[in-house]
Design a protein that fits this description.
The chain has eight helices and nine strands. The protein is an alpha/beta fold. The strands form two sheets. The protein has a seven-stranded parallel β-sheet with strand order 3-2-1-4-5-6-9, sandwiched between helices. GO terms for molecular function: oxidoreductase activity, acting on NAD(P)H, oxygen as acceptor.
Length: 281
């Protein structure tokens, strides 16, 4: 069964759509007959992505909008153009940055990450959710989470905090949508594994050879559609090194830190290394 929001001639809006997972999702939804709105701040990459997508679908099914997710004006323009393009039924909040910032580093670094990874998603929800509910037809919002927002490994606090916030925001969104009488709009949290994208491989080109460990972005896009079709809220993606079973054990260990009153992030605490290795084995 196909998720009712994924239907021909309706509009899918995708941020950060010029490359990586965003572009892969655009290709997959275009394959399902949807009209695609590609939103990105990189004009050259956006033009390239649009040209590549037009090789797979009709030209009048593609709309590009150039803008920055941290700009209120850009997001309003995205909303206006998308609604003019047709009936919006899928919104994919994919744009994000992985720029590092530690627990006491400058506010400027933190604000950059949070504006891109969290506040932009909230703003897009504020624009699109009332519109989707008013349409009273099947629709879905997908927010891109991260395993780092669940197990919160040390080393990039700002990114982990931003993705933890996305997890909670999307959970709250789905709960509120479930209370709506029609229950026609759903929310989903896509949680990629290690993926072969420009975020993880800066400077990669079309000729860069993919290492064995990561999944392709196309595999993540397929996982998303399969998860939505099953009605999943948490859509976990594996990769070629980490199975879903291992992810489950890591998540369980993190949750048990509170229940068992262990030190924060005990998975990386020297006194708990042996116990963790035994647990995941």
């Amino acid at each position: 069964m196909t998720h009712p929001a994924i239907r021909p001639h309706c509009v899918a809006v995708i941020t950060g759509a010029a490359a990586g997972i965003g572009f892969a999702i655009a290709c997959r939804l275009a394959q399902a007959g949807m009209k695609i709105v590609l939103f990105d701040k990189d004009q050259q990459a956006l033009d390239t992505a649009s040209s590549m997508l037009m090789e797979r679908t009709a030209q009048d099914n593609i709309l590009t909008v150039t803008g920055d997710v941290t700009s209120t004006a850009s997001l309003q323009a995205l909303f206006d153009h998308a609604c003019e393009f047709g009936e919006v039924s899928v919104v994919i909040n994919n744009a994000a940055i992985i720029q590092g910032a530690g627990p006491w580093q400058t506010s400027t670094q933190w604000r950059t990450v949070m504006e891109t990874n969290f506040w932009s998603v909230l703003h897009i929800q504020q624009l699109f959710v009332p519109h989707l509910l008013a349409q009273n037809t099947p629709a879905a919002i997908v927010n891109l989470g991260s395993k780092e927002g669940i197990t919160t490994p040390p080393g990039n606090a700002a990114y982990s905090v931003s993705k933890a916030a996305i997890k909670v925001l999307t959970e709250q969104l789905q709960h509120e949508l479930r209370q709506h009488p029609a229950q026609r709009v759903s929310a989903h949290l896509l949680i990629p594994g290690y993926t072969f994208t420009p975020m993880n491989f800066p400077g990669m080109t079309s000729t860069t050879v993919k290492p064995p460990a990561p999944w392709t972005a196309a595999q993540v896009a397929e996982c998303l559609v399969e998860g939505m079709n099953k009605g999943d809220f948490y859509i976990f993606c594996e990769d070629n090194e980490v199975s879903w079973q291992l992810d489950q054990r890591r998540i369980q260990w993190s949750a048990d830190d509170m229940i068992l009153n262990r030190p924060a992030l005990s998975r990386w605490h020297p006194d708990y290394q042996a116990a963790f290795k035994t647990f995941i084995s």
